[in-house]
Amino acid sequence: MVMALPLLIQIRKKHPDAKITWLCGKVVFDLLSHFKEIDELIAVDETMLLSKGIIGKLSAIFEIWKKLIFRKFDLGLYFYFTDMYRILFFPAQIGTIKRFEKTKGKRQNPIPGRHHSFDYISTFEETEGPYTYRIEYPKFRYENNEVAKLKENHNGKKWIVLSCGGAKNILRDDDLRRWPIENYAALGKQINEAGFQLVLTGAPSDKWVESHFETIPHISFIGKLRLKDFIAFLKISDVLITHDSGPLHLADLAGCPVIGLFGPTIPQEKISLQEKSTFIWGGEKLSCRPCYDGRSYAICSRPVCIESISVDQVFNLIKERV
Fold first, then answer.
1. Would the pLDDT of 225 be above 60?
2. Which of 165, 212, 239, 297 lies in the 20 to 30 Å Cα band around 124?
3. Using alpha carbons only, what angle is made at residue 36 by residues 31 and 42, rounded to the nearest 5 degrees?
4. CA distances (Å), 308 to each of 102, 123, 301, in order?
5. Which domains are present in the chain?
6. Which burial class, exposed, middle or buried, applies to 50 when counting CB atoms under 10 A from its CB (0-12, 13-18, 19+)?
7. Phi/psi zone of residue 21: left (φ > 0), alpha (ψ -120 to 50 degrees), beta?
8. Whole-prediction pTM value?
């Protein structure tokens, strides 16, 4: 979702008076409501659609159909390889549909190794190149004064944020993407010893992380922040360390520098685009890296690629940024 946001800027440049409707999951509905470039949001109940059996699927689909029936659109942008979600806008009349491609006889889009934000824009523009699109995010218009004040009573310490969980959704748990929790804990010890403030973040489903930091002084916001408040929180943080997961992208909306940790996925497709951000891609000499084709991972008994990233490597990058 975050990597698609620069597309809004491009659409507005080309069609400033267009009415933009975004069909999104309920999880991100509230977050997207804070971008003025979107005129209308229609929420899909992704839990019903993806995990509640045939009755749940039909219920979610019919709810969307009721909102789209007899609606007319000049252009539809569809960013999936699979056709399964096209059923959602079946009742709408759409003049032209542009989409990601991964079919025989057509050029693949997204292009492996290119940041996905460019692929969203190039799909809209139908341009193969050369082009020099500027990737910029629309302004996230949300402030939370309580979150903004969280850092006031911590003696001016730099806030080093670890997001150790994530990398999962309703359909699956992509644990191959995660840097080992033991490494995060060891990094947390070094962060404390250096006089920084260690902060843990994550969704309610990431509560398991906290048991690995019981003996390490820290502040935990795991399960305590809504998505929009998490972005407000990152605005007051000094650096975020995480693997290929949602927080890595959300940090761009907050202007928080990121140290991204990658193994089975190609960093250049998903890295933070901020000047102060950086990344480490583990497993340089492994011929199996990367092993992600955009939909699934190779069968892997042990993700040596991301495990090979050392704690010292990451800590040295932290010191360079704070």
1. yes
2. 297
3. 55
4. 32, 36, 15
5. 2-125 (3.40.50.2000), 149-321 (3.40.50.2000)
6. middle
7. beta
8. 0.90
